[in-house]
Amino acid sequence: MRKTLFVLPNAITLAAVFCGFNAIRLMASPDAGPNEFYGAAILLIFSMFFDLMDGRVARLTKTQSAFGLQMDSLADIVSFGVAPALLVYQWVGHRLPGLGLLASFVFVSCAAIRLARFNVLSSSDTGAPTKPGKYIVGLPSPPASGVLISLVVANHAWENRLSDPRYTITLLVMTIGIALLMVSNVKFRSFKDLGLNAGSILFVVFVIGSSAIIWQQTAPQFVLFWLLSFYVLIGVFESIRSLALRLTGKRPKREASEH
Question: From CA 63, how far away is CA 239, in angstroms rounded?
Fold first, then answer.
């Protein structure tokens, strides 16, 4: 039974790899167009779902292992490194081959570096995964790629208006910016400390309320982009706030909670 349970989270990880591989297959088609890009983005969203599930299933079944940690990162470089970078290039980057290739390669490189660093920081001396903390150093690759993936989904709902050539440079610069956040020292919340208190309730109410407004004012497909962008903005804002407190000689409460 234990061997069977050990296979379960790894099978979910392989499901994420399949979605990433299939997305690359769609984008690599010679006649790939908006419909193929949209289909690839949907597959990568499923990959994000499987990536979210495998770790939780491993913790639930108590089958966490060094093998699972390494396999998860190898899966992520396919689904949240190569696939989204290729998606951006095939979607808009090919219009500016130099900048497009640079943006896509920077994203893949930063995803690889971020995953390698994560493995080092998340492993004990024996290689076994350690208990996750309240904060993650660097933007995790799933939400980083999710911002780009959600833009493709939103573009499909918005009748391909984001595909307009005037947005090309903006999208490529955004890709580079998100990539650099992955290898930065900016700390992002893991929400492991989210409990039933006034602050958490207000946070959830704001997220639900703002998502409902985005849903009504634009299109349902924009909600995912908003949620992932909001997550990124929280980490950046808190890092700027911590830096400001250091410059004024005050110690951020976040640092105090990490020691």
Answer: 34
The pLDDT tens digits of the residues spanning 80-89 come to: 999 999 999 9
- Tens of pLDDT, residue by residue over 13-22, are 999 999 999 9
Average of per-residue pLDDT across 168-183: 96
Q: 247 in helix, strand or coil?
A: helix
- If one compares 242 and 90, the residue with the highest pLDDT of the two is 90
Top CATH class of 2-193 equals mainly alpha
Dihedral sign computed on CA atoms, order 55, 182, 214, 91: negative
Taking the alpha carbons at both ends of the chain, their separation in whole angstroms is 39
Alpha helices in the chain (DSSP H): 2-27, 34-61, 66-77, 83-91, 97-121, 141-157, 168-182, 198-217, 222-247, 253-258
189: part of which helix (H) or strand (E)? strand 187-189
